[in-house]
Backbone:
């Protein structure tokens, strides 16, 4: 996949775990793990908004596009 999720990096920088972040943004830890491990097929803008709000970051800090060769 050309779009990579770097949520784990931002979570480490902010020293927040999956359970805590999931509770703060209102999704299950299992769904957050799917997103964090780059297994998600989609993300709602409302979820991305909450993640950015809690982690005090920009969407580009979490989502990265890498060109396929």
Residues:
């Amino acid at each position: 996949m050309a779009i990579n999720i770097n949520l784990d990096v931002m979570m480490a920088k902010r020293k927040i775990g999956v359970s805590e972040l999931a509770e703060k943004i209102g999704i299950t830890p299992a769904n957050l793990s799917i997103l964090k491990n780059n297994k998600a097929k989609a993300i709602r803008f409302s979820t991305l908004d909450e993640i950015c709000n809690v982690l005090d970051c920009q969407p580009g800090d979490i989502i990265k596009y890498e060109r396929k060769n």
Observations:
- The longest helix spans residues 45-55.
